[in-house]
Amino acid sequence: MSVLDRIVDSTRDAVARRRREVPLAELERRLEGRDDRPFSEALTRPGVSVIAEHKRRSPSAGEIRAGATVTDIVQAYERGGAAAVSVLTEGPNFGGSLDDLREARAASVLPILRKDFIVDPYQIYESAVAGADAILLIVAALSGPELAALHREALALDLDVVVEVHDEPELACALEVVEADVIGINNRDLTDFSVDVERTYELLADVPAGKTVVSESGFHTREQLDDLERVGVDAVLIGETLMRAPDPEAACRELTRLAGAEPEAL
Length: 266
Fold this sequence. Notes:
The structure is a single chain. By secondary structure, the protein is an alpha/beta fold. Helix content is 45%, strand content 17%. The protein has 13 helices and ten strands. The protein has helices at residues 3-21, 24-30, 39-42, 70-79, 98-107, 121-130, 144-156, 168-175, 198-204, 222-231, 240-244, 248-256, 258-265, and strands spanning 49-54, 57-58, 62-63, 84-88, 112-115, 134-138, 160-165, 182-186, 212-216, 235-238. The chain has an eight-stranded parallel beta barrel, surrounded by eight helices. A two-stranded antiparallel ribbon has the order 2-3.
């Protein structure tokens, strides 16, 4: 059983437990008055948009930044010019929670992506109630019908969706969902957590014009982002590089080139 398979199995068990504790009808009631922020629009501004991620730990890297608060990190990202924030909410393997998402929502005006292993419609309602503006759907974790159904459910709740792929069959599956406007190309193989940034370049040519493309994992420098911009990638999701930086705001500024834009703005 791969790492991904184990995570998906444990996620299904956890969702069943949470559903018993808080029925879906209660989540639906809590949706009243929800105010969403435009996540997809934030990815299509000129240049490569940076989705800066809050990530506590990972199976491959262990603990990433002990003692840091979500508020401090997310506000640093906002000051550093991030277009959006990703909050990793999976608990057993990544140390995250929906409380992290709620704190991020309260701390920043940026649109927020809930990054998790979403396999059940219940999680979509959770996401909206907790303050997410978008969710991640991982093709490798879902059947084709599951992917399509979850995507429809998210759109019905006014949540944007990043459909994540890692190889050509997964991309073909994603493109069968006609409404899938945002394609995430994950350079990390979720079966063993190895990273190859060439994956984005290999798959990009097969993504139809008009789709928003997000490249995920393995990027550390502005030069790499410049390369992505040249080939037409719209956004990049960066987590560990920013979380490990001595000054996350400065690191984010370097990637977004916000520091270089300041004198001109003055």
